[in-house]
């Protein structure tokens, strides 16, 4: 099966082949697995901290990567977005990212788009033949994740959401189970304080309020890209959908105690899904109505 890859690829991915031998059987070889990765397409929304994900997936050999951003490189990015260099400051992140990633792996198909996401409609056209989405956008607060969630649910594309809050790393994978709107509904039902937080943060533009540093971004990127690999290869021990995983950098512990089910009342993925993303007021009214019924 070695003819699935050319000679340069066989040399480049020698360590990959050795690692994949842990997962091989009579039906698939390590070369089959590398070819599967080569034939995959991952979409990454946001090229800030997620630029590390792009670099890692390019090194892994993901055959097609689409990345999207609209911002420029700033000095304040360099404490954690270390793919960018001092000479990139002032450049579009898309321009700098394309140059850097091509230096890592010139064999992959790299599609870098300079665009600002303002709605789910901006995302839907990007999801054709995409195997998985990594959402690296968090502003404007909450609504940006709802845009991504709605588009991915509509097109039935798995998505990984993540974030950093001080010494805590949060990561969630949505793949056929409760979606991000289900999460908001669950939290609003079970935590009275959450509604206040939701109203405060919804649509908020985060500027100069970032607790991410290089070590935590590196750890998060490792978690995300390892999960992408497991998903693309359909390996065991993938993250369970509908769970929020939290890694404590101080304690070096991971827990997944936070869990929500798919809601039949969810306007995005429930029994009667809406053709358009509903506003947050409508979503909260559904929560209140469901709570009154129960």
TrEMBL record:
What SUPFAM superfamilies does the entry give? Activating enzymes of the ubiquitin-like proteins
Domain of life from the UniProt record:
Bacteria
Q: Which GO terms describe its biological process?
A: protein modification by small protein conjugation
Q: Name one GO cellular component term.
A: cytoplasm
One protein family per Pfam: ThiF
Note the InterPro entries from the entry: ThiF/MoeB/HesA, ThiF_NAD_FAD-bd, Ubiquitin-activating_enz
- Domain THIF-type NAD/FAD binding fold, chain residue ranges per copy: 30-267
What's a Gene Ontology MF term here?
ubiquitin-like modifier activating enzyme activity
Q: Tell me what this protein is called.
A: THIF-type NAD/FAD binding fold domain-containing protein
Q: Which organism is it from?
A: Lysinibacillus alkalisoli
């Amino acid at each position: 099966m070695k003819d699935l890859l050319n000679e340069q690829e066989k040399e480049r991915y020698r360590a990959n082949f050795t690692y994949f031998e842990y997962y091989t059987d009579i039906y698939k070889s390590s070369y089959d697995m590398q070819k599967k990765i080569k034939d995959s397409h991952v979409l990454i929304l946001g090229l800030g901290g997620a630029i590390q994900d792009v670099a890692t997936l390019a090194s892994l050999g993901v055959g097609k990567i689409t990345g999207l951003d609209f911002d420029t490189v700033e000095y304040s990015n360099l404490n954690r977005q270390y793919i960018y260099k001092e000479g990139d400051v002032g450049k579009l992140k898309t321009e700098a990212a394309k140059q850097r990633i091509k230096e890592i792996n010139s064999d992959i198909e790299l599609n870098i788009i300079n665009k600002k996401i303002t709605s789910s409609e901006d995302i839907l056209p990007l999801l054709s033949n995409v195997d998985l989405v990594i959402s690296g956008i968090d502003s404007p607060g909450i609504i940006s994740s709802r845009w991504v969630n709605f588009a991915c649910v509509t097109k039935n594309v798995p998505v990984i959401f993540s974030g950093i809050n001080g010494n805590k790393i949060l990561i969630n994978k949505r793949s056929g189970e409760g979606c991000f709107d289900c999460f908001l509904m669950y939290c609003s039902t079970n935590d009275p304080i959450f509604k206040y937080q939701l109203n405060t943060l919804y649509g908020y533009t985060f500027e100069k309020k970032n607790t991410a540093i290089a070590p935590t971004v590196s750890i998060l990127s490792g978690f995300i890209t390892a999960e992408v690999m497991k998903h693309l290869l359909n390996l065991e021990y993938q993250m369970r959908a509908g769970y929020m995983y939290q890694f404590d950098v101080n304690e070096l512990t991971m827990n997944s105690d936070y869990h929500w089910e798919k809601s039949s009342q969810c306007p995005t993925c429930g029994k009667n899904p809406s053709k358009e993303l509903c506003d947050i007021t409508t979503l909260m009214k559904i929560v209140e109505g469901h709570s009154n019924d129960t």
